[in-house]
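FAQ: What does a ligand-bound record look like?

Like this one, built around 3-methyl-2-oxobutanoic acid:
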Amino acid sequence: MSLTPIGAPRHKITTASLREKKLQHEPITCLTAYDYSSARLVDEAGINMVLVGDSLAMTMLGHENTLSVTVDEMLHHVKAVRRGVKDALLIADMPYGSYHVDAKDAVRNATRFVKEGGAEIVKMEGGEKRADLVRQIIDAEIPVAGHIGLTPQSLNRMGGFKVQGKTLTDIEQLMRDATALDRAGVACIFLEGIPREVADLITSEVSAPTIGIGAGPGCDGQVLVFHDILNLTFGPPAKFVRRYGDAAAEITHAVHAFRADVISRQYPADNESYHLPPETRQALETLLERKRMMRGRKQITAVD
Ligand code: KIV
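The answer part, i.e. the structure of the complex:
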């Protein structure tokens, strides 16, 4: 296995690099990002893929689930992320409703993510039933990522965010979903919320790299949500989330400190203030002095 050392020269990740990594058994890294600054940090840390997930409906916009986010809202974030990403492969999530009406509409929406947003891949949820659509989007020269298992856009049909693929029937369906997407030519398949044994099976059966989230260690790569790894989600994390930092604590500490400094007039200090150039300062003092003298003279005249 060839692991790129931290700090080594990096290069642009493409869909071909993902396949190569699968062949070389080199783990693929993916994180979500939703704005310029987080995208830059993720990209500069050498993460292979940056996903502008529709999870931004919750993490950035405060919605209960992903269903209401629109193509225009997604595009707003994809454009910002595009400006922050250099080497990573940029994936944009197609939101609910943007590929469920008809194929023409779906291809048009996918095209917008590439033309307006600068995305390199679009991601759609669903397996077998999306295979024809995947082909049509690829025919429009747009690489597609599949997403099966716990697909959050199927929330109402699933009756909640539940681990999928726990019965033999469900496992067979997931296998059909994965192979149909693979045959349709997807660049990779996201596997969400399924038992690790099922993810292992899918990973060994398909040529497309699998990217797991709550799908165990056997996938070709792993993705997590930026806000989850940094404790920015205001609730208990899912079982598969590992916290790598506590940005909530850092931010809270900084905000409290700022508030206290303003209230106690400790902020801003003199060295955090702008100053006049010495000649202007001198001229201003002279002017003010003259005004004071004139005011004094007027007062004497008034008393007289
Ligand atoms: O929207 C998202 O963040 C996702 C990942 C969880 C895979 O689809």
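Follow-up question: can I read anything off the structure? Yes, for example: Residues 278-303 form the longest helix (26 residues).
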